[in-house]
Amino acid sequence: MLVTGPNGVGKTNLLEALHVGAQGFSPRTRSDPRLVRFGADAARVWLAGKSASAPFETQVDLAPGTPKQVRLNGAALASGEELRARLAALAFTPERLAVVKGGPIVRRAYLDRMLGRVFPSRAEIPSSYGRAVAQRNAALRRVRAGESGLDAVEPWTAQVAALGTELDAARSELAELLAPGFTRIAASLGLADALLAYDGPGLTVAELETRLERDVERAVTGAGPHLRDAALTAGERELRSFGSQGEQRTAVLALVLAEAELLTERRGEPPLLLLDDVFSELDTERRGALLAQLPPGGQTVITATHRPGVAEPDLVIEVTPGAATVAA
Question: Which of 97, 117, 214, 259 is most buried, by the most CB atoms less than 10 A from its CB?
Answer without folding.
Answer: 259
